[in-house]
Write a structure and sequence with these properties.
Low-confidence stretches: none
Structural class: alpha/beta
CATH superfamily: Flavodoxin domain
Oligomer: single chain
CATH class: Alpha Beta
Order of helices and strands: EHEHEHEHEH
Distance between the termini: 14 Å
Length: about 190
Amino acid sequence: MPQPYRVATLVGSLRKGSLNRHAANAMAGLAPDSLTFEFIEIGDLPLYNEDLDKGDPPSQWRRFRDEIRPADAVLFVTPEYNRSVPGLLKNAIDVGSRPYGASVWAGKPAAVASVSPGGIGGFGANHHLRQSLVFLDMPVMQQPEAYLGGAGSYFDADGKLANEGTAKFMRTFIEAFARWVEKIAG
């Protein structure tokens, strides 16, 4: 059996009971054996400042870049803040795209899932993030799209998926992502 594809997983929420973290964990648990998921810490990254990238960049930036670089693909799971992505996720994207000419993102297949207790499921964040990924030369899976609205009812008190319809959708999404990764990275 071939080695599974390594999927760097970035969650755009730091909240302890994050619906996005619950959703990312659920998708990882529903994925086929062809994918393995590595959750990459982004909450400790200092804000990007080009001056700090000259010489010896912050250790958190080096760690982050070293964890993303060997990944075969990237899964972004994000809430929506003010019709866009949270600042910590945008900062991680910026840190990974620099220094100029040394982006860790280029060519990696990606998928975006937005998760929200609101009705439109983070539509604005999902599409705003896709704009950045196009610039970063990341082929983003187009279908199925994942806007998980009303997400407060999807999980039990322990953060486990408790909605069979959502589980079915997540399985469809993550299986499509596995095929996308195979097509692009394979």
